[in-house]
Structures are given as structure tokens and as C-alpha cells.
Amino acid sequence: QVQLVESGGGLVQSGGSLRLSCAASGSIFSIYAMGWYRQAPGKQRELVADITIGGSTNYADSVKGRFTISRDNAKNTVYLQMNSLKPEDTAVYYCNTKYYKNSVLFGSWGQGTQVTVSS
């Protein structure tokens, strides 16, 4: 019931920065957390970072110290600031939200945005 639209992906050189945005619409009152996952060719989709309604954050070890997740509740948007990008960060990045409906936890996904980091 929650729709997510990502933006901000693109091509950047190693060491550069990108800022991803994810705007949520629909029934958002029950959202518990929002986050970013990524999937490279031939690999599983993996958690990059997430943030709960209480502000707690979690990061993959591979991005700690380089990526920062944040939110703007007024705009129903979550961001991922990516600094010091490396070629291994190349992947499709997906926004995800976890939300409750009648005490059942659901997840919704955006369509994804491509991030490509060149050497």
C-alpha cells in the first residue's frame, strides 16, 4: 500500500559522491523503517542502510563511514548520501519500507536506480 520512487542514481568516478532520494506515497502512517538495498549482477540483494521511525540506523560494514542515511518526514522522503564511492558500490539501489498493517509486517520496494562507479 506504500509506493516508493527512487531517484539520484548515475555514473560517477571512484571517490565521488551521489545522493539518492526515495519518496513515499500512499498509506504511510504505519511505516516502521525505511532503507536502501543494493543488488549487483549475479549477487543477492543486500542491505545497505536503514533507519527506523525512532531514528536508529544500521549500515552494512562495507559502507560504514562512507554512506549516511537520513529522512525528511515532512516530505515523506529518505535519502542516502554516498561519499568516497568505490567501483564495488556499483549496483542497482532499491528503496525499501517496512510497515505494519493489522499487526502484520510488510515490505514494499521501489523500482530501483542504477549507480555505476568507474575507476
Question: Please, could you describe this protein's structure?
Answer:
With 119 residues, the chain is mostly beta strands. Helices cover 0% and strands 61% of the residues. It has no helices and 11 strands. The chain has strands at 2-7, 10-13, 18-26, 31-39, 46-52, 57-59, 67-72, 77-82, 91-101, 104-109, 113-118. The strands form 2 sheets. Strands 2, 4, 5, 6, 9, 10 and 11 form a 7-stranded mixed β-sheet that branches. A hairpin with a 2-residue loop joins strand 9 and strand 10. The protein is elongated, with a radius of gyration of 14 Å. The model has no long low-confidence stretch (mean pLDDT 93).
Overview in brief:
By secondary structure, the chain is mainly beta.
Uncertain regions: pLDDT < 50 for 5+ in a row?
none
Give the fraction of residues assigned to helices: under 10%
Mean pLDDT comes to 93
Largest sheet: 7 strands, mixed
Q: Please tally the β strands and state the result.
A: 11
- C-alpha end-to-end distance: 40 Å
The gross shape turns out to be elongated
Q: Strand-residue fraction?
A: over 45%
Tell me the radius of gyration.
14 Å
Structural class: mainly beta
List SSEs in N-to-C order: EEEEEEEEEEE
User: DSSP helix count?
Assistant: 0
Topology:
Blueprint: E1 2-7, E2 10-13, E3 18-26, E4 31-39, E5 46-52, E6 57-59, E7 67-72, E8 77-82, E9 91-101, E10 104-109, E11 113-118
Parallel strand pairs: 2-11
Antiparallel strand pairs: 1-3, 3-8, 4-5, 4-9, 5-6, 7-8, 9-10, 9-11
Name some characteristics of this structure.
119 residues; mainly beta; 7-stranded mixed sheet; 4-stranded antiparallel sheet; 11 strands; elongated
